[in-house]
Every structure is written in structure tokens, then in C-alpha cells.
Amino acid sequence: MEPGDAARLGPGRAARALPPRLLLLPLLPLLLGRGLRAAASASTGAAADDSSAMEELATEKEAEESHRQDSVSLLTFILLLTLTILTIWLFKHRRVRFLHETGLAMIYGLIVGVILRYGTPATSGHDKSLSCTQEDRAFSTLLVNVSGKFFEYTLKGEISPGKINSVEQNDMLRKVTFDPEVFFNILLPPIIFHAGYSLKKRHFFRNLGSILAYAFLGTAVSCFIIGNLMYGVVKLMKIVGQLSDKFYYTDCLFFGAIISATDPVTVLAIFNELHADVDLYALLFGESVLNDAVAIVLSSSIVAYQPAGLNTHAFDAAAFFKSVGIFLGIFSGSFTMGAVTGVPSSLTGAHVTKFTKLHCFPLLETALFFLMSWSTFLLAEACGFTGVVAVLFCGITQAHYTYNNLSVESRSRTKQLFEVLHFLAENFIFSYMGLALFTFQKHVFSPVFIIGAFVAIFLGRAAHIYPLSFFLNLGRRHKIGWNFQHMMMFSGLRGAMAFALAIRDTASYARQMMFTTTLLIVFFTVWVIGGGTTPMLSWLNIRVGVEEPSEEDQNEHRWQYFRVGVDPDQDPPPNNDSFQVLQGDGPDSARGNRTKQESAWLFRLWYSFDHNYLKPILTHSGPPLTTTLPAWCGLLARCLTSPQVYDNQEPLREEDSDFILTEGDLTLTYGGDSTVTANGSSGSHTASTSLEGSRRTKSSSEEVLDRALGMGDQPVSSRGTRLVFPLEDNA
Amino acid sequence: MEPGDAARLGPGRAARALPPRLLLLPLLPLLLGRGLRAAASASTGAAADDSSAMEELATEKEAEESHRQDSVSLLTFILLLTLTILTIWLFKHRRVRFLHETGLAMIYGLIVGVILRYGTPATSGHDKSLSCTQEDRAFSTLLVNVSGKFFEYTLKGEISPGKINSVEQNDMLRKVTFDPEVFFNILLPPIIFHAGYSLKKRHFFRNLGSILAYAFLGTAVSCFIIGNLMYGVVKLMKIVGQLSDKFYYTDCLFFGAIISATDPVTVLAIFNELHADVDLYALLFGESVLNDAVAIVLSSSIVAYQPAGLNTHAFDAAAFFKSVGIFLGIFSGSFTMGAVTGVPSSLTGAHVTKFTKLHCFPLLETALFFLMSWSTFLLAEACGFTGVVAVLFCGITQAHYTYNNLSVESRSRTKQLFEVLHFLAENFIFSYMGLALFTFQKHVFSPVFIIGAFVAIFLGRAAHIYPLSFFLNLGRRHKIGWNFQHMMMFSGLRGAMAFALAIRDTASYARQMMFTTTLLIVFFTVWVIGGGTTPMLSWLNIRVGVEEPSEEDQNEHRWQYFRVGVDPDQDPPPNNDSFQVLQGDGPDSARGNRTKQESAWLFRLWYSFDHNYLKPILTHSGPPLTTTLPAWCGLLARCLTSPQVYDNQEPLREEDSDFILTEGDLTLTYGGDSTVTANGSSGSHTASTSLEGSRRTKSSSEEVLDRALGMGDQPVSSRGTRLVFPLEDNA
């Protein structure tokens, strides 16, 4: 066994060695520059004679140069993003749909990458290096004695001996290379949180069962199929002699895991724009959000698969079950962490805003919300779980409970804040991807592996979608049609998560090959599939446009968000024309039945628990606890129930709309979210009226939607913009 | 001369040695933790035998432990901020005014600091350290050869030999210690930008001359007086034997510079809340914003004062003039950078939004605005200027031009975004200050120096305010009264900027003593002066409350912002009752005269240039360039002028209100900003109506304000919420 193997087999975070002087800060590499400058100056403080004064000046200049380069490299990214934004605007303006903003960001990234790679002189590094032989192992901190002064050094990573010189060659290329952990700790959390936070949608909950099946079973199936196919490809490469280094089965499985994280951002943006079928949208969006979480945990448990003994690459049942245990442990831990920290957040949100007037201070509310969401990430990381996964479920919980406790002002503020963060982070990642194709210095292009990977992800996606849809259709009243299945098959894009997982560890030959392949897969899928979505939709006869009674239709005056493609889950706007009593079974009664069908007993149980106990405690809505809790809990119930609940008791105020329809034992509400949409729309109204006036079809969409909800001949009381359907509740 | 001296005399960023393992990341120390973990794992990949597997496990655990501690330390800060926010809310709710949120953040910081200091066990550091002797100097990068593998190390800083062991003692204390550059590169920019962005206020421009005098002359005077007084104190300490190390005259001047940066955040919050005199508010706010910029540049040019030759502490004319040159160079460079990068930003803002419809995409606009403002900071840093100063002037330019090009939605979004960033950053700095009193490990408490410093800042402030006010009053029609002068004297609080400058360099004994003293001065001034503001106001008979016709009065329904104290410069709200023709010279004609008096020829010249050329190019307002430019520029003029300008030509639309009144040769406008205030107020309206209904005095305030503007018997045309006073313009 070679000395390098341990790194390859070692635990997941192992062996990231290059690029050597990573920029630790994504946002402010300056910091590092400054730190170095200060340190360098400090280092030269040791001697005060003339030669050291000269040296000090040299070091100072060197450090300033480094700081300047940091600023310039960050400026490069900012200008890239600026350019992207300006071009996106042009595209939106001209209604160009074949290229999404993320695809555009990648193209600009590519161009800048080419310029940096071939346009800048290959200067030798400014850092003086010094060899110093040590005996047994590398420590994370080093104390160095220089003429009686002690200096502290921190370990950056390993450098393979052959690259010691080449590594130093191009400063600019190194400056634009970020520490991969930046993606996990800074860029992904806002993206994932925003996805979770915007998941509050009745179509999502209506299709929850199918979404969970696609996300969990589907991702696992896809991972194993791709892994096995790739193992075949690797074997083939060995025979053909195309493989120059080791590539194990676990590596293949790891590749299967990272490449199973779909990110149909392009497709979803077009769906929004074209108002495509909402159920299909919910299926795709829900799957992509959840399978990111599955893929990240799956990949880390594959890495944790370490058979004992010398036979390190044979199957080992103990290690396998340990991996499964790790998967379950991390996933459920992160899930619980996210869901549970959402609760104190909404408890503070509820009990501070419920009994008090925090909502008079939207700034405080927004800041509190931001801090609480962030602390979830940190708490999960502190407990050894996966912060990104915790943040996802925190986002969902926050949307479900906390959101309803926020003031109207704060709702719009938090949405907008996370929208901007999400937008910047996402475009940054995609432009970084473009850049990385040329600036990343350890690419391993293997045509056989790349072609094999394309075939494998195609087959993996097929084996994921079609059989699963078949089994799901057995249980669903409203079947997932063939055209939907084809569309889901087609929409298997790869994006930010696959890239972040792939770049996290590029130390070994196998990982480098995977990274290169992942990058190419992302490019291909975003450009080709993104561009082909519109033709595909019409070819598959998927309903688009205003004929489809989707809730997006109601959002005409928030249209501009959709076209930007970053806020796909807006809540419905205030319907000033919603003072109407809905009646009659619509033509869409099949959908209503399906809905009833899908809300199986498990969900009904959960919904009833949520409605009777959680909602009254965590929000202002629901029945007072005094009516739902047993009599002996009276005092407790009185403490926990907001006084507003009593005020709202009749008719019941239901503040959120992600309900599950039941056979009549629960209060059904629709449009509870309508208050939400005061959002920022009041401001944008004027602007969009002129632009979008022609596209509005305010008329009947809502009516049709309500019919779609399958609420037939039930008594309806309408209060303001809120339609409440009080059934025989409060048992 | 001792070996350590060079560090003390060296250039400004020199010689910051401890704390040794600084957290480079303020937001995500995780990153470092992860980086270390990866690096540590990489390091152990070298050997694959059994003992190294054990070692690997140990290193892995160690790295995970470190990562966990990073998360916990960041969680500590987040919980601190959360606690602060909740308590602030309580204070706002109970209308407690004696303690401001920043004072509160400091108290909580203190408490947590005490717990961390005395409550956590003094564990020895987990990092293995190794000595390795080098010959001549310390390099910023080190290559270490471990059993044939090369590892890269980065210099962290110097450690004084005596502290090698003590340094490692308390992990938790080290974890909560940030790299001082974090303050300059991450926390200060949003605070300073927000200050600049909210400076768009007519009262500021009306008092511009006085504000500039206070900020430039005043800060310089204060710096030299404090510096000289402190030099006396230091001499005294030497005689008494209280001084154990070197303390030079330049150190004293440096202290004078850093302590001259006032930050009356507490006083201004109370002014807002009590609706104190607007001119006094403008003087205080304007002075504090600009003197931050002066102090930062002043301190770095004092540090750059390095006399040639051996006599390093005598006066050297060449070095002195070099310092002055550096001051002027950096300041004007940063100013130009900020002002000029504001221009492409507003040009994009103007010419993209002017000729196009970017304002239909508020998200894109907001992101663009954010990126452009940030790129100013980076550009200034890349060019060797001061990013913080550039950001300040960028903020002012953005508020003056770009803001007017933004859509209503984006105006509120950008304001809210920077409001949240500012709020979080400010409270973070103040709670860090509280923490630092106990966790910072190199405090030098010198009672004589501290008492001397308190006396010196008192005298320095007095020598700054009273003589300058005397001279200013010679030129001002509307004198700055004695009570105003006393109030300004009283409001000389020290805050975030003084702290950031002091903590930037704590390597030498003198600097450590300065840091400790600065910390105590900040504590004292924020708590005592902050608490004493309300009594002081009434004692000095300064007009407060609704009797004073301030523009804040009009903002009743945005009241909640003011009470949070972070958005002191709101624009006036949409006055639906503003369809009134103003007439007659108000009782306040003295103020009108003063206004005319102050708008001297220089400002008139600037205003006319701004109005005739800059505004039409950069915004949608002003006269078309075709009318103002000479005939031979016709084509250029036509290109640069927005078509909307022609539409708006009659009556002239003036989009911003920070105008300077002139003798009648220019169009005067009032209330141009009124559209602005659609801000977020539509959302908060409902909430505040109930709470603040009792405090509203919508009635006459506006009328009085207009009278205050001294616009007498001029014809008035009112268009919607905008009042335009077209005079004989378009000469």
C-alpha cells in the first residue's frame, strides 16, 4: 500500500491538499491579505538593523501586493455578477428563455477563466518558502524560532512534491480559488434555507408522499445504479489502460451520491414563467430540495464506510451497517435539529410577538429571525450534524409556524433578505463553476469516464423516475401521467449541490476525475436541458399558461419575481375580489378526490396534532388549547394560549394554507396566506401594471383554483381577504 | 535599541502578534475549523500503518473538537445578539430611555465575558506545537518536510517567548477573539455605508459648512490637544514610575487620533425619539459621520510618520510633511474613489433604469446596488486607499443620485437590507466590546493614564467645540446657541470606530494601554452620557417633541424605526394632505434668512452644476442637457438625456430634496422625496396605527416645516404628493 492511500481512504474531510493558499474568506479575502500583512510586518519586527529595515519594507510591499490581489480577485467576481445581472435584465426584457441566469453566469465565468488562465503572466509566487525537516508527523500548529523570536504557523495542507514549484506559478489563479468549505458554510446555507422557506405551498403538502418517495428512495436508487454503472466503466478503463491511478468501488458510490443531487433551477424558473402545471412543479421542486439533503448525508456516510482490517475494499457487513447507521443518525439528527430549533424561534416569535408588540419593530423581528435561522446551522454543526440539512428543515418549520407570527412588514423583509442572499449565492456558485473549468489546476479529463457518467446519470434517472412513479401510481388516485414522468426524467439537472460536494475533496486522482466530470455534467445539463425546457413542455403536452388554474396566476402583479426565477413560491396576493362564496363541485372534481385520497391517516393524524396543539402554542391561530387539551391541563393550556386565539375562536382563524384536506373532521381554510402578499407588492405594483398589464388574467383563476381544491357544498364564511370554511371542529 | 522597537515604530499594520490563533472569519469560524480539520486529516495521510491510523483518529477528533468550539463560540455571539434584541424590544415597549441597545449589548457582553473568563476551565490547547529553528527571518509561508511529504504552513503571528505556554491556556477565550481586521473589512463597512446612505437630508446640506469645519478642523484640533495632554500624562507617569515600557510622542498623537472619532449613536437615537432640534441633530450626525473618516486617515498618517535616521522620535519636517501628504492623498483618494464609483453605479442605475425597465426587477436592482457599493470598498482597497472612507462617500453619492433612479420597491429593499446589516454589525461590535474587557488577555490598566485620558478627551472636546463654534458663528446668520454648543460638547461619545482603531494594533505596551483606556472610555460615555441625554436636553432647554417643526414629525407612522434608533434619516412620508398652497412668510423667517446666508457662492456654484449637468446625466430629473449644454454639444446632450427628462420638463421634476436654497435663480423643490416613503411604511402602517395613534400630530407640522424653509410668496404648483416651486429656471 502506498503512503498516499490513507488519505484517499480516510474519513470524508481528508486529504484536501491543493490549491495551497486557499482563500479562507469568500466574502473578504482581504482579511487574509491583511492578516498576512500584519503577520509579515510582525515577523520583521524582530531585528532593527538596516538590512532588516530593507527586508521589512520588502515584506510590507509583498503583503500589500497580496492584499491588493485579493481585492482584485474579489472585484473580478463582483464584476462578473454585475455583468450577469445586467445581462439577465436584458434577457428578461427581451423575454429570452433559452438561457437562464445561472447558465449565463457560467458562461461569463468561463470567459473570465480563459482570460485568467491564458491572459495573465505566470508570475512566480511572492511567498518566500523555506524547507524545514520534521520527524514523524505534521501538526496543525507550528512554532518556529527565528533568531530568538517565536512565530506561529498554521497548517494549510499537503503539497505533492512534484508540484511545489508549479503551485507557485500563477498568483492570480490561486487568488480566485476558494476553500471548498466556503460553499458549505457560506454559500449553500442561504440557498437551502431559502428553498425550505419558500416550500410553504399547498401543492407541496398535497404531494408530500410522492415527493418523499422520490427524494429518499429515488436518490438511493439513483446513487446505487450510477455507482455500479460507474464501477463497470472504471473496470473497463482499467482494461483499456485509461486509468492511471486507483479508483475504488466506494469512490464510484460516492460519485453516485454526489451526482444524484438534482437542482432543476433552470426548469423551475421556466415553469414559473410559463405557469406550468403546479403539481408537476411541486413534485420537481420538492424532490430537488429534499434530495440535496439526502445526497449530502448519503455521500458522507459512504465516505464513512471503512471496512476493518487489511482487506479495505471488500464488502464488510459491520462497516456497511455502520454507514447505514451514520446515514440515519446524521439525517434524523439534522432533521430534528432543524425542526426543533425552528420551534424556539417561532416560540419566541409567537410568545414574544403573540403577547407583546415585537411586530411594531420589523427591524428587530427581521434581525431576530435571521439570527435564529443562523444559529440552527451553527447548533447542528456544533453537535456534529449537517448544518445545511438542519437549515433546510429549519426553513420549512419557520415557514410553517414563525412566518405566521411575523408582522406583514417583517414577512416581506425576511423574504426579501433571503431572496437577495439566495440570488447572490446562487449566481456566485455558478459563475465560480465557469471559472473553475479553466482556473482549477488539477483537472483529470477522461473521455471514457465522462461518457460513461452521462450514460449512467441518464439510466440512473430513468431507474429512479419510472419504476417509482409506477409504484406511486398504484397508490395515487390522480396518477402521475407519462408526460409528467418524462418531464421529471428530463429535468434531472445537476447544479450547486453536486458541484459543492465534488469540490469538497479533490485530493486523490479519482476525486479529481469526478470533479471534472461533475463540472461538465452541470454545464451540459444547465445549458442544454435549461434551453430545451420550453420545447420539451410543448412536446409533452404539459399544460402551461393561463389556461391552467395555478395559484401563480393570481400573482400577476408579482410577476417580476417569477421572471427572475428566484422566488418560485410566492404566496397568493391579497384578493380584493375574494368576497365570493364558492360553490358547486368544479369540473376538476377528480383532483379533489385525489387530494382526499392522498391525505392518508398518517397525515390526518399529524395535521390534527399540528392544528390542535402545535398551532395554538406556536402561532396565533388554531383553537384555544383549553378546548383541545384534557381538563386537568387547564392551567397550562391557559398559559400557553395566546389571548388572540380566544378572540379569533369564532370563526377559526387559520393562518397558513399548507393544509391537508380531510374527510370533514377538520377546519378547512383557503387563502389564509393572503395577508402575506402585502409583501412588497404594493411598491412594485405601479411598475408592473404598465409592463404586465397585458398579461393579466385576474378574472376567473381564483374561482377555478378554489374549485380545484374540491370544496363542494360546504358552508363558507368569508372574512376580508380570508376565506374560512368552519366545519365541525372543536370536538 | 531593543529588538522589539521596530515593531512599535513600524508601519501602521505592524506588530499585531496576539491572540495567536485568531479567527479569521467573523461570520464563519467554522471555515477555519473545517480547514484545519481537513488539513489535519491530510497531514495524517502520510503514513498508513497502525500507529498513524490511531494518530489520524486522534487528529480527526481534535479537529472536530476545534470545529465544534468554533460553532459554539459563534453561537455565543448569536445568542448574545438575540438576548440584546429581546431586551431592546422590552425597553422600547416600556419606553425605557436611559439605556440604549448598544449599552445593553455591552452589558450582556460583559456578563458573558466574565462567565467565559472565570467559568470555563483553563484547558490546555489541543494544538500540538513543535519548535523548528530557522536562521534569519520569518516567512509568510513555510514548507515543511515530514517523512518525504511536504506541508504548507501559513504565518499567523509572533508570540512572545514568555507567553508560549500561557497562550494555549484557554481555548474558549481564544475562540471568541476575532482578528481585528474583521472590524475593518466586515463590520465597519455596512455601518459606515448606512451612515452615508442615510445622510441625504436637507438639514445636513444646510449646515454643510459648519459640519465640515467640525469634522476636519475639529478632529485635528482634538487629536493634537489630546495627544499633547497625554504626552504630559505619560511624562508624569514616567516621573512617578508608573510606566514600565516605552511610550512615545507619536503614540500619544495616535491615541489622540483614534479617540477623536465620535459616535453619538445613543444621543442620536434619543434625539430621534424625542424629536429634538433638527439642526442640532444634523450637526451632530454629520460631524460624527465625517470625523470617523478623518480619524481613520489621520491615525494611519500618524503611524506613517517615520523620521529618517537614528533620532527616531525627534521632530522631522520631511517626515511631517510626508505624513500630511499621506493624509491628503489617502483622504482625497478615498473620497474620489467613493464619489466616482458612485457615478458608474448611478449611471448604470440611471442609464439602465432610465432607458430601460430594470426597475421591474427589484431583486436585480437591489443585488446590483449591493454589489456596486461593495465593489467601491474593494476598489479602494485594491488601489491602496481606505475602503471604509470610500464606502462612506459612495453611500452619500448613492443616496444623492442612484437612490432616485431606483424603483420604489428597490429603495425600500436597499434601505432595509443595509438597515439590517448595520443593526447587526453595530450590536455585534458593542457586545464584542463588552466581551473583550474580560476575554482580551493583554489589558494594561493604568489608573493615571485612564484618568488623564478622561480629562484630556473632555478638554479636547471643549477646545474643539467652543472656539470653532465661535468662529462659525461669525459667519452664520443663525448662530449656534450656547445650549447647542453645550449639547455638542456633551455628546462626544466614543464608539465603534475608536474601538476598531484601538484593537487593530495591540502589540506594544503603549498600544495595549491605549486599547484598555479606549474600552473604558467607550463604556463610560455610552452608559453615562447615553443615560444622561434626556435630562441634559431638558436642562439645556433644547426644544424637543412635537412643538418643534421637524421633518421627523411627519414620520409618525414610521415611528417604530426611530425608536429602534438605527434609521435616523428617514425621508418624509407621502403627504396625502399636501395639496395645499403655502403662502406667507412664517414666523420663522430668521431661519429662512440663515438658510440663504449659508448657501454661499461655492455651494450655489456646485448646486447649479449638479442641477444642470450631473442630475440630468445621472438621474431622471433636472432640465434636459440640450437646454443647459452649449449648442455644439447637441448630439452628446441628446444621447445623455433621458427621454423622461423631456416628459418631465415642465414643470421640472426635482427628484431629491437635499437642495440648497438660492436667491431665486434656481428651481426650488420640496418634498421630492415623498415618493420614497412608500418605503416599507405601507406594511407597517396597520401595526403602528394602533400603537402610535395617540402620538400623531399630523396637523400642522408640515405647514410649519414649509414655512421654515423660508419660501415665501412664490408661486407654487403642486403635483400629487410632490410640491414643486418653479422659479425662473432654464436660463
UniProtKB/TrEMBL annotation, chains A, B:
Q: Where is the signal peptide?
A: 1-38
**A single Gene Ontology CC term:** recycling endosome membrane
Q: Show the segment(s) annotated as Disordered.
A: 564-595, 675-701
Q: Is Chloroplast set as a keyword in this record?
A: no
Polar residues: compositionally biased ranges: 675-692
Keywords, ordered alphabetically: Antiport, Cell membrane, Endosome, Ion transport, Membrane, Signal, Sodium, Sodium transport, Transmembrane, Transmembrane helix, Transport
Q: What Gene3D superfamilies would the database entry show?
A: 6.10.140.1330
GO BP, sorted A to Z: regulation of intracellular pH; sodium ion import across plasma membrane
The domain of life is Eukaryota
Task: Extract the GO molecular function terms from the UniProt entry.
Answer: potassium:proton antiporter activity; sodium:proton antiporter activity
Could you tell me which residue ranges the Cation/H+ exchanger transmembrane domain spans?
84-539
Give compartment(s). Cell membrane; Recycling endosome membrane
InterPro entries named in the record: Cation/H_exchanger_CPA1 (IPR018422), Cation/H_exchanger_TM (IPR006153), NaH_exchanger (IPR004709), NHE-6/7/9 (IPR002090)
Q: Where are the transmembrane segments?
A: 72-91, 103-120, 182-199, 211-233, 253-271, 283-305, 317-343, 378-396, 417-438, 444-463, 484-503, 509-530
Membrane topology designation: Multi-pass membrane protein
Q: Which family does it belong to?
A: Belongs to the monovalent cation:proton antiporter 1 (CPA1) transporter (TC 2.A.36) family.
**Entries under NCBIfam families matching the protein:** b_cpa1
Q: What is this protein called?
A: Sodium/hydrogen exchanger
| Species the sequence originates in | Canis lupus dingo
**Lineage, highest ranks first:** Eukaryota, Metazoa, Chordata, Craniata, Vertebrata
Name of the gene encoding the protein in the UniProt record? SLC9A7
